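Annex B. Sample input.
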Amino acid sequence: MDKKAKKRLEVIRPKLQNLQKQLSGAKQQDDEPGEVQRLEQEIENLKAEVAALKKS
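Annex B, continued. Sample output.
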């Protein structure tokens, strides 16, 4: 893994944790329709990117 991939992982991890907290809050307080699906999609995209970076 090169420096660029490591740096990207350092950026993704806190973002992923923040999105998971937001998702938890959105599930408890369902004010905006579609917000839960949007957050879940963003989390899946970031997890896929992490997996791809770890492979390289």
